Amino acid sequence: MSRISKAFANKRAFIGYLTAGDAGKKDFLELTHHGVNVLEVGIPFSDPVADGPVIQKAMMRALQKGMTPAKALDIVREIRAESDVAIVVFTYLNPIQKDLKAFLSQAKQAGADGILIVDLPLEEADEYRFLCDRVGLDPIFLIAPSTPPERIERLSRAGRGFLYYACRKGTTGARTGLPEDLREKVAVIRAKSSLPIAVGFGISERKTADAILTIADGFVVGSHFVEGNRSL
Question: Which of 73, 84, 118, 196 could pair with 8 in a Cys bridge, judged by C-beta atoms 3.0 to 4.6 Å apart?
Fold first, then answer.
């Protein structure tokens, strides 16, 4: 069983995001002491269109400190040397596309278990999926509230590890409460996929996370941790 599969066992995946360079090995490992069992290591990018102000600022701080994809993988390597936690690399295509094959191979060698390229559409992902399969990385795909059922099925067949349901329209950022249609939307995804489902975008309270776990298989916390909190 893979590390990602183990994290989703019993529908208890707790995914925590931080931006590499804005956070270091110590920060990521601290999250694991508070229940996080999947680390999402963000690679900074100068035009992070899917992210809200908190993560945008974190990416700018990281870039100003000289963080690069290669240095981000050094952090992955440092984490893996001390922990068996599941690790997913979160990135935009631009920072890694120049030599995608080498990056994916290096990510696996560093200890990553999966990768999510937030702005890579399925229609342009054939080579990426082939390379992920070749090196043994799980390609993880995003589903939006507007994603139709037939596309959910295609994304599920193309992906591995889990499906990331971004439960709100717009960009990332901490919010309270849950969308009223969350249960219905997750049921539609469940009907079209056998992969575990993680719900993200806006989770900043434990009661919200607990509510998600009655519906989905895991939840993602990003901005709340990037703001400096280390527990939920």
Answer: 196
pLDDT, residue 160, reads 98
SS3 195: coil
Report whether pLDDT(172) > 70.
no
Q: Which domains does the chain have, with CATH numbers?
A: 3-226 (3.20.20.70)
Please report which helix (H) or strand (E) contains residue 95, including its range: none
Asked about 40 being catalytic, the answer comes back as yes
Q: Which of 22, 27, 47, 51 is catalytic?
A: 51
- pTM surpassing 0.70? yes
- DSSP class of 175: B
Cα 148 to Cα 20, 56, 86, 153, 185, distances in angstroms: 33, 29, 29, 9, 10
The reply to whether 78 belongs to the active site is no
Burial class from Cβ neighbours inside 10 Å (0-12, 13-18, 19+) for residue 145 reads middle
Residue type, position 13, single letter: A
C-alpha distances in Å from residue 99, one per residue of 70, 111, 120, 130: 12, 19, 15, 14
Determine which one of 22, 27, 30, 40 is catalytic.
40
Higher local confidence (pLDDT), 153 or 177: 153
